[in-house]
Automatic annotation (TrEMBL):
It comes from Paracoccus onubensis. It is an enzyme of class 3 (hydrolase). InterPro entries: AAA+_ATPase, ABC_transporter-like_ATP-bd, ABC_transporter-like_CS, ABC_transpr_PhnC, MetN_ABC_transporter-like, P-loop_NTPase. It comes from the Bacteria. Its EC number is 3.6.3.28. SUPFAM superfamilies: P-loop containing nucleoside triphosphate hydrolases (SSF52540). CDD domains: ABC_PhnC_transporter (cd03256). This is Phosphonate ABC transporter ATP-binding protein. Keywords: ATP-binding, Cell membrane, Hydrolase, Membrane, Nucleotide-binding, Translocase, Transport. Pfam families: ABC_tran. Residues 249-272 are annotated as: Disordered. GO terms for cellular component: membrane. Gene3D superfamilies: P-loop containing nucleotide triphosphate hydrolases. GO terms for molecular function: ABC-type phosphonate transporter activity; ATP binding; ATP hydrolysis activity.
Amino acid sequence: MLEISALTKRFGDRTAVDKASFVVTEPAMIGIIGSSGAGKSTMLRMLNRLTDASEGAIRFQGQDITALTGRARRKWQSRCAMIFQQFNLVPRMDVVSNVLHGTLNRRSTLATMFNLYPREDVETAIEILDRLGVAEHAAKRAEALSGGQQQRVAIARALMQDPAIILADEPIASLDPMNAQIVMDRLRRIHDEDGRMVIANLHTLDTARRYCDRIIGMRAGRIVFDGTPAQLTTGVARDIYGAGADFSESATSTAIEQDEAERPAARMAEPA
Ligand SMILES: Nc1ncnc2c1ncn2[C@@H]1O[C@H](COP(=O)(O)OP(=O)(O)OP(=O)(O)O)[C@@H](O)[C@H]1O
């Protein structure tokens, strides 16, 4: 259903994603791991068409995604909704209106300007908020909610678009462990109950192991691992992160970045 072939992104003479290829035949929950600068965000941004690929192809259910322009590109961005580490809500706007923002693509400019949302959309938004356990906060300003609650509102906004794919770029990197678990549990449930594909960039190995059916490991722009959590042995993880023999199972990419800072040879993949 989703086919990525030799997808490449260059920024000047830096290759952020280098001939990445993978195929997803049925909706799955996929985690992308790798150290900072490995190309994970760039990969998701190309999938969502926020960034244009330099080379290669993305096909979804037979459609050439890389070729889409204008309205067709915006439609794809609705089918392939993205959530971000920093939630990207409008802080002073109430929670329901933030969620209804997910319908902007299909509403007229006039309706948008005057905040005229159809009643059934408002009801759907509340139902989705309820599903995510934050309906009681519907009337509050987004900025009044905790980080974990805001991320659930961001997921609700994504669901409002009824997407086939949810792309999550480090969705729990700003959250404490308890809220991180709540957000990952919700994403997993959305996958299990709705059959939506979820592709998440994840900072910590244990999260990827625990929640994902399939893990893709990136290093210096290349896919260096693609398999199940069981196949992701400590040795494989060490290769993905370019980490030394002191690498431990509980290590996170944050800990590894610090290791890399001390090892100049491993800095290639880091931002300039
Ligand atoms: N807009 C840009 N202009 C120039 N270089 C960029 C741009 N975006 C990303 N890069 C570079 O591309 C490489 C991959 O970056 P990317 O953000 O995709 O990595 P990442 O694995 O998501 O890292 P992190 O976990 O730190 O977010 C890095 O070397 C980065 O500096």
